[in-house]
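Inverse folding, one chain.
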């Protein structure tokens, strides 16, 4: 049975990683799409994003995926699905500061395992994937707005503008300003 409201006792069990509550209830996190045991050592979620389930199968039926770290009910997410989940998270949060450590924590795995699995499945690292997303968004902003580079860099999560320009040129072969001039249609 799904419970939108979490009791103080359940919340405390999650915060304390209390294994005494394992198999008593499971908690799912709406923002990540993952469900866990109360004893899971992952970063505590925001309370408003938590749903409570009495059984693991209920969380699965609601579309949540089993945590790779605590493996509720012995279930785990296949590597390809886990990588897809991480990609989807990066697609939505590319403008935030994302490190391998916080991605691994958010997606319930170790940084080493995340790096190794992501690279094996996609043939690129999580950082390379994130850079591709950011540069694609930058290209879109360069051709559809007149925003200055500083604002575009901030919008895509790259606040270090010299690094943004260098990475953009490395990936596209042009500086952002060169790209904007080349790709923006002129009104003649």
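Residues assigned per position:
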């Amino acid at each position: 049975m799904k419970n939108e409201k979490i009791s103080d006792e359940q919340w405390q069990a999650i915060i304390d990683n209390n294994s005494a509550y394992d198999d008593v209830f499971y908690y799912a996190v709406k923002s990540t799409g993952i469900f866990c045991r109360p004893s899971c050592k992952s970063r505590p979620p925001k309370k408003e994003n938590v749903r409570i389930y009495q059984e693991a199968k209920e969380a699965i039926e609601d579309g949540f995926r089993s945590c790779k770290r605590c493996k509720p009910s012995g279930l785990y997410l296949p590597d390809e699905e886990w990588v897809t989940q991480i990609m989807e998270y990066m697609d939505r949060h590319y403008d935030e500061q994302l490190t391998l450590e916080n991605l691994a924590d958010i997606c319930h795995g170790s940084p080493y395992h995340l790096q190794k699995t992501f690279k094996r499945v996609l043939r690129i690292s999580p950082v390379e994937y994130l850079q591709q997303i950011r540069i694609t968004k930058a290209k879109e902003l360069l051709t559809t707005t007149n925003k200055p580079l500083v604002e575009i860099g901030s919008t895509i999560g790259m606040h270090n503008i010299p690094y943004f320009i260098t990475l953009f040129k490395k990936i596209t072969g042009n500086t952002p300003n060169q790209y904007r001039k080349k790709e923006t249609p002129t009104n003649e």
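Strands lie at 26-29, 34-36, 50-53, 65-66. Residues 143 and 183 are 6 Å apart (CA to CA).
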